[in-house]
Amino acid sequence: MSDDISKILRDAAEIPETETLKTDQILGKTFEILETRTVNGPYGLSWVATIDIDGTVTDAWLNGAVVARQLTAINEKNALPLKVTMTRDESKYGSPFTLVA
Predict the structure, then answer these.
(1) What angle do CA 69, 73, 75 make, to 5 degrees?
(2) Which of 21, 52, 54, 56 is close enough to 32 for a disulfide, judged by CB 3.0 to 4.6 Å?
(3) Mind listing the pLDDT tens digit for each residue in 72-91?
């Protein structure tokens, strides 16, 4: 392996990994959803989004049955990017997470 490739690989290994934000960490915050994807996690199918929050682009788990339905509809309409706020709907049983545009 050439020295250039070895250096590229070493340097890349030193780049810190960004943590995927948990849904609770973005509760009450406004952010722009740039793209979404589903992943098979320990609790089944889950949504992860790349978001822009306060000028920082990162990944976040977007959990909850209501949010899953909202993300499905957003993707079906090709409505991304979309600015939203993560809330809890206190008027519904269990206070589910909800995205509000």
Answers:
(1) 115
(2) 52
(3) 999 999 999 999 999 999 99
Is the pTM of the predicted complex or chain greater than 0.70?
yes
Structure-token pair, residue 90: 């206190």
Whether omega before 96 lies within 30 degrees of 0, making that bond cis, reads: no
Task: Give the 3-state DSSP-derived string for 6-65, with helices as H, strands as E and coil as C.
Answer: HHHHHHHHHCCCCCCECHHHHECCEEEEEEEEEEEECCEEEEEEEEEECCEEEEEECCCH
Contact in structure between 33 and 49 (CB atoms under 8 Å): yes
> Under a CB-based contact definition with an 8 Å cutoff, are residues 60 and 9 in contact?
no
SS3 of 98, please? strand
Summarised one tens digit per residue, pLDDT across range 33-61 is 999 999 987 778 899 999 999 999 999 99
CA distance 4 to 25: 40
